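Supplementary Note 2. Why include the ligand at all?

Several targets in our set were suspected to adopt different conformations when bound, so apo predictions alone were not considered sufficient. For every target with a known small-molecule partner we therefore ran a joint prediction. The input for PBG is given below.
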Amino acid sequence: MSFPARRLRRLRRTPAMRRLVAETRLSVDDLVAPLFVRQGIAEPVPIASMPGVVQHTRESLRKEVRALADLGVPGVILFGVPDPATKDDEGSQAWAADGIAQVALRDVRDEVGDQMVVMADLCLDEYTAHGHCGLLTPAGEVDNDATLDRYARVAVAQAQAGADVVAPSGMMDGQVAAIRRALDGAGHHPTAILAYAAKYASAYYGPFRDAVDVRIAGGGDRAAYQQDFRNAREALAEVALDVDEGADMVMVKPAVAYLDVIAAVRARFDVPVAAYHVSGEYSMIKAAAERGWVDATAVAIEQLTAVKRAGADLILTYFASELAHAL
Ligand code: PBG
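The joint prediction is reproduced in token form.
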């Protein structure tokens, strides 16, 4: 036999050959580790629905970030978990100079300097008593425009505390423009914006709500501001708006169920595209592995390679540390 199939098989014969001709290479350089830091705890608190992930103390956060830097992971994204007693209707701890995220950003910046890109998730839901990503109208709906001014304050507070990148995740219209204007107005021209541009209202965020202790009041959801998972063209419209408003990078979230969206965004736009492999994607792999049904690391590498193959330039993943060891 000497037809094209032979050629394909020849290129698969040994591990070295497969390595040489691989079209997609997942590397530690692609990874951003999401980390949770909780106010007022003495020891790290394991998150039951995310095996291997914890709510950090300030001290354990420093150690974890140091370890990630030493492994060569280029980025982290911080989520603050405030003392529940400090939550209010506006989420004012989100922009307080001594709010947990700002305090932790200073710690991390002090620990790693410019060795890592330090990102801050920018939202209000961890800080509001009602658990929504924005302020509410008297009727209980999210008030898009009133929320923008609060996001602007959070962005400036995070930049002041040392964030290289702020990452608005609330899906308010006009958030990127409002944040860019506020950052520039306060002299933070170098601070970049990673917009959660195509963020779907997703059932895959379940374990994250445990990680940040967020319950939406009255059993509500975010379907009125996050995207509908039936829509892909709409994602391109969302990304176009954010790029126009000044987003330096854009994100698609979740990742594996939205590979088509990642590919479409990659094809249409020239800014770096991030994908967020979210809590539910992580926990499903971990849960199956605990039952001995799959090899967690192998599945993680296969999924994240698919995310990269679809076109993502950077991947936010709770597997960052594990994969930095494995790769
Ligand atoms: C909102 C936010 C969420 C996630 C990141 N930022 C949750 C939500 O929109 O309800 C989810 C991350 C994950 O599931 O890993 N601040």
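The chain has a mean pLDDT of 96. DSSP finds twelve helices and ten strands in the chain. Comparable summaries for the other entries are listed in the accompanying table.
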